[in-house]
Design brief:
Blueprint lengths: L1 E5 L4 H12 L3 E6 L14 E4 L5 H10 L4 E4 L6 H6 L1 H21 L4 E7 L22 H20 L2 E7 L1 E3 L15 H10 L5 E4 L11 E2 L1 E3 H12 L7 E5 L6 E2 H12 L5 E4 L8 E2 L4 H7 L8 H14 L9
Parallel strand pairs: 1-2, 1-4, 2-3, 4-5, 5-6, 6-11, 7-10, 8-13, 9-14
Antiparallel strand pairs: 9-12
Helix pairs in contact: 1-7, 2-4, 4-5, 6-8, 6-10, 8-10
Bound molecules: uridine-5'-diphosphate-4-deoxy-4-fluoro-alpha-D-galactose.
Length: 328
């Protein structure tokens, strides 16, 4: 299939692009490079540097490359920032997304895979979280993603669009070519590995008084390649129907302390740790039930072991000590 990947120069988008190419699809990455990295896009993919708000370029790109499906990953995704700057999140995640849907309508592209998030659920009422559970986001990031999901339902109804909305839990890990390189970095695993490498003085645990097995927050970490595979599988339903799927590894998840301990074992290095205050908006536990995508699409995570996930992130960090810096 000829697939447009918005945000394809970002962390997860670059891995989705790699997997598309591996499977023999054609990939056109559409990215403004406002956060993405040109060097993250593999050579075999085509690349268009443009913004989603630029409707004319968007439409021309869909037409020129005869795009058959869109994987829409371009977004802002920091919970804390979204509370401080809701306008940015509504504009970049909601308004820009609607612009994409307009361009798709005008060019008769009817297949969409959308990057959604566990943040659509808010403070969960039970674990593991299922797709039918209540959605009550506690921040503008989750609200903006949920608002777009809701728009998709009505666009399907009126315009015949089919979509797969994938609610990611905690993406982590790397491939040989693509890894996590954010500025600033806020995600736990790269922060822990930076502390191991000595490029950061220590890791601060955001609260150790949660009602969990060791007092620190528990999350469901999923390898970025397993996440990417779910996007490719989801393309298969889009001729017929739409769906919402959770994506995590399930089980008991891992606490912040367990992540730090696993990173010590993987790296063999000392990781200085401090304990700080809770980070506003962090639920104690977020674990996915991914039974729906397993039973409907046959998806299975291949790399559930946290140490395997951390090992891949560590290998990438060692090969790219400055991330993508200087590699355009
Ligand atoms: N944490 C620390 N110290 C740090 C960084 C993180 O203790 O320096 C803790 C957080 O409090 C949290 C856990 O580590 O309990 C994971 O934090 P991340 O920032 O890595 O990930 P989040 O669970 O906060 O967020 C991720 C995505 C969001 C998405 C959310 C949904 O980044 O976009 O998962 O589950 F909304």
């Amino acid at each position: 299939m000829r697939v447009l990947v918005t945000g394809g120069a970002g962390y997860i988008g670059s891995v989705v692009t790699e997997e598309l190419i591996k499977d023999g699809h054609e990939a056109v990455v559409y990215d403004s490079l406002y956060k993405g990295h040109r060097a993250a896009v593999i050579e075999e993919a085509k690349f268009v540097e443009a913004d989603l708000m630029d409707g004319a370029t968007l439409k021309a790109t869909l037409e020129e490359h005869a795009i058959e499906a869109v994987i829409h990953m371009a977004a802002d995704s920091l919970v804390g920032e979204s509370v401080e700057q809701p306008a940015k999140y509504y504009r970049n995640n909601m308004v820009a997304g609607l612009n994409l849907l307009d361009a798709m309508r005008e060019t008769s592209v009817t297949r969409l895979v959308f990057s959604s998030t566990a943040a659509t659920y808010g403070e969960p009422l039970k674990q593991p979280i299922e797709e039918t559970d209540a959605t009550a986001p506690t921040n503008p990031y989750g609200e903006s993603k949920l608002a777009f999901e809701r728009a998709l339902k009505w666009y399907e109804n009126a315009y015949g669009l089919h979509y797969a909305s994938l609610r990611y839990f905690n993406a982590a890990g790397a491939t040989e070519h693509c890894g996590e390189s954010h500025d600033p970095e806020t995600h736990l695993i790269p922060i822990v590995l930076e502390a191991a490498a000595g490029t950061r003085s220590s890791v601060t645990i955001y609260g150790d008084d949660y009602p969990t097995r060791d007092g620190t927050c528990v999350r469901d970490y999923i390898h970025v390649v397993d996440l990417a595979r779910a996007h490719i599988l989801s393309l298969n339903i889009l001729d017929e129907r739409s769906a919402i799927y959770n994506l995590g590894c399930g089980g008991d998840g891992y606490s912040v302390r367990e992540v730090i301990e696993a990173a010590r074992e993987v790296t063999g290095l000392n990781i200085p740790v401090e304990t700080g205050a809770r980070r506003p908006g962090d639920p104690a536990v977020l674990i996915a039930s991914s039974d729906k995508i397993k039973s409907e699409l046959g998806w299975q995570p291949a790399m559930q072991d946290l140490k395997v996930i951390i090992q891949s992130a560590w290998a990438w960090m060692q090969a790219h000590p400055k991330g993508y810096e200087g590699k355009r």
